[in-house]
């Protein structure tokens, strides 16, 4: 089955929204715009958003029931943990402009990228069920997520320096709310 370009674009933007929101929170982490770090964050989010549907597509038959039964819990716990940690660390800090280190640890970035791309794994399973080609959607998802994440980091950096710890607390709350949204939408 051939899916339309509009559907692929809509799917790509929809899957990128969690990464976009989290990248704003990641942008809040730094006090000044750093092109290398912004590209790094966008790369991780884009890469994982592209890899997960590919994995879901090829493993659809074998692990569909297992993945669908726990994906929402995994995303919920990862996002809630990181969001809660952001809130606690922002309460401890007094500096309003540099609320986190300029460089986000790779381990933390991988956890964020996985947490925001679990729904992309399910999208890959769906594309497999539709018996469609996977490569155009994967490329589109990766590129759009990269672009939106890069933009998110940029805006997050602007917001972070202007609003300081309040912006970081808001970023943590957003992560927790995204986790709740994923959990509630899958449970109900």
Would you spell out the secondary-structure blueprint of this structure?
Layout: H1 5-28, H2 35-92, H3 106-129, H4 135-163, H5 165-187
Helix pairs in contact: 1-2, 1-3, 1-4, 1-5, 2-3, 2-4, 2-5, 4-5
Structural features, described:
The longest helix is centred in the middle third of the chain and has 58 residues, at 35-92. Helix 1 runs parallel beside helix 4. The chain is built from five helices and no strands. The two termini are 29 Å apart. It has one domain: Growth Hormone, Chain: A. With 188 residues, the chain is mostly helical.
Comma- or semicolon-separated keywords:
188 residues, mainly alpha, Growth Hormone, Chain: A
Strand content: under 5%
Q: From the coordinates shown, what is the CATH architecture?
A: Up-down Bundle
What assembly state would you assign to the polypeptide chains in this entry? single chain
Order of helices and strands: HHHHH
Mean pLDDT, to the nearest integer, reads 79
Number of H/I helices: 5
Principal-axis shape equals: globular
Could you say which structural class the secondary elements and strand pairing correspond to? mainly alpha
Work out the count of structural domains: 1
How many DSSP-defined strands? 0
Q: Determine the fraction of residues in helical runs and give it as a percent range.
A: over 70%
Q: Within the CATH hierarchy, at the fold level, what is the topology?
A: Growth Hormone, Chain: A
Just give the CATH class.
Mainly Alpha
């Amino acid at each position: 089955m051939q899916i339309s370009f509009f559907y692929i674009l809509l799917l790509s933007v929809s899957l990128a929204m969690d990464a976009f929101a989290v990248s704003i929170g990641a942008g809040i982490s730094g006090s000044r715009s750093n092109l290398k770090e912004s590209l790094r964050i966008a790369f991780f989010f884009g890469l994982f958003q592209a890899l997960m549907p590919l994995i879901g597509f090829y493993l659809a038959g074998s692990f569909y029931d297992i993945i669908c039964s726990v994906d929402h819990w995994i995303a919920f716990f990862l996002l809630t943990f990181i969001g809660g940690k952001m809130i606690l660390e922002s309460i401890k800090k007094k500096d309003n402009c540099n609320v986190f280190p300029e460089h986000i640890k790779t381990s933390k970035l991988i956890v964020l990228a996985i947490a925001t791309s679990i729904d992309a794994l399910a999208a890959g399973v769906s594309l497999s069920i539709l018996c469609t080609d996977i490569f155009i959607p994967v490329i589109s998802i990766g590129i759009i997520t990269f672009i939106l994440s890069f933009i998110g980091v940029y805006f997050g950096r602007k917001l972070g320096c202007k609003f300081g710890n309040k912006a970081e607390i808001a970023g943590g709350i957003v992560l927790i709310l995204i986790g709740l949204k994923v959990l509630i939408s899958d449970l109900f």
